[in-house]
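Figure 6 in text form: structure in, sequence out.
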């Protein structure tokens, strides 16, 4: 946004979004440097713990981006539900979603099945989704809470079948609530992004949450090269059976820490990112409050313009955590969206 002050003839640039880094954030980054441990470490555990509290999740997997989080969640759910093995090839998603939702679905072997939005809410119609879930080849649903306004994940969770999964993309909606529960509570897994434009930032970074311990183990494995072992970096033999496994045709006692049972990746978050996330999540409540105040201020400015449709998802049991301010220029206007 640009503002021209005619009195001083100074043009000021007001950025749409960007990272807000404080002195406390910088102090933690300095501590990470001085600790000389730069992969999964103390701040991984601290950030995971605080994120679990904020999202109401039992298990958290930190990764290097929200896109990677989707890849991890889809791969793990595919394995957990044996979707492709059962001939379930389609994933229902929103026509206005982010590109990596589609990319990760295709890379995991699925075919996206697009559903359009309701223009009044910008959200996917849950009844249309429920009807489509009756199609035998549908494996599950992957949908984002658009711009911080929750979609009816509660309704979809109740309507889905036992052999179908629901993944909530909460990248835009950290702190939003639905039926008095944090978004992300209704699906089999939820994903988050900590890109600079989002509520808190780790630079790049993301996370997958779940309440299912077995699914969490699969997510962790895909995130860690496909490793079968669950030891953290710097740890060993936490199962007390490191050299006591018989794995296929491998010699008895083959080192469990170096057995890889999945085609995985290295998508882990660095300790620098985790430290920054831990520092910022302590300010999350204040950040969300300011976002809500900004949203209401902007709404009051545009409210009286009949040429503009302001999108406010007013489902009575929904508490948004605004990510942006959507405006639709309607047919009454003598100007275009580009003009505004």
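Output sequence:
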């Amino acid at each position: 946004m640009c503002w021209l002050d005619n009195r001083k003839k100074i043009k000021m640039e007001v950025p749409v979004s960007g990272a807000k880094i404080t002195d406390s954030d910088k102090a933690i980054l300095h501590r990470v440097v001085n600790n000389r441990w730069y992969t999964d470490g103390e701040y991984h555990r601290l950030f995971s713990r605080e994120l679990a509290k904020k999202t109401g999740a039992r298990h958290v997997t930190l990764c290097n981006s929200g896109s990677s989080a989707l890849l991890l969640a889809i791969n793990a759910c595919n394995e957990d539900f044996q979707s492709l093995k059962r001939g379930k090839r389609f994933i229902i998603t929103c026509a206005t979603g982010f590109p990596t939702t589609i990319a990760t679905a295709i890379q995991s072997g699925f075919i996206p099945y697009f559903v359009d939005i309701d223009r009044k809410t910008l959200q996917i119609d849950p009844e249309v989704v429920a009807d489509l879930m009756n199609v035998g080849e549908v494996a599950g649903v992957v949908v984002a809470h658009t711009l911080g306004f929750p979609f009816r994940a509660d309704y979809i969770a109740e309507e889905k079948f036992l052999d179908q999964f629901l993944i909530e993309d909460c990248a835009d909606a950290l702190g939003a609530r639905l039926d008095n529960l944090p978004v992300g509570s209704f699906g089999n897994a939820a994903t988050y992004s900590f890109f600079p434009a989002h509520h808190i930032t780790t630079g790049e970074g993301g996370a997958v949450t779940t309440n299912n311990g077995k699914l969490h183990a699969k997510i962790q494995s895909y995130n860690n090269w496909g490793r079968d072992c669950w030891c953290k970096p710097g740890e060993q033999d936490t199962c007390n059976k490191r050299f006591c496994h018989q794995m296929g045709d491998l010699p008895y006692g083959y080192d469990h820490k170096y057995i890889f049972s999945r085609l995985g990746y290295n998508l882990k978050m660095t300790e620098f990112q985790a430290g920054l996330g831990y520092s910022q999540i302590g300010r999350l409540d204040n950040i969300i409050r300011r976002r809500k105040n900004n949203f209401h201020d902007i709404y009051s400015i545009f409210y009286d313009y009949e040429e503009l449709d302001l999108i406010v998802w007013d489902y009575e049991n929904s508490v948004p955590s605004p990510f942006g301010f959507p405006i639709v220029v309607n047919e009454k206007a003598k100007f275009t969206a580009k003009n505004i």
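Caption detail: The domain at 23-226+262-284 is CATH 3.40.640.10 (Aspartate Aminotransferase; domain 2).
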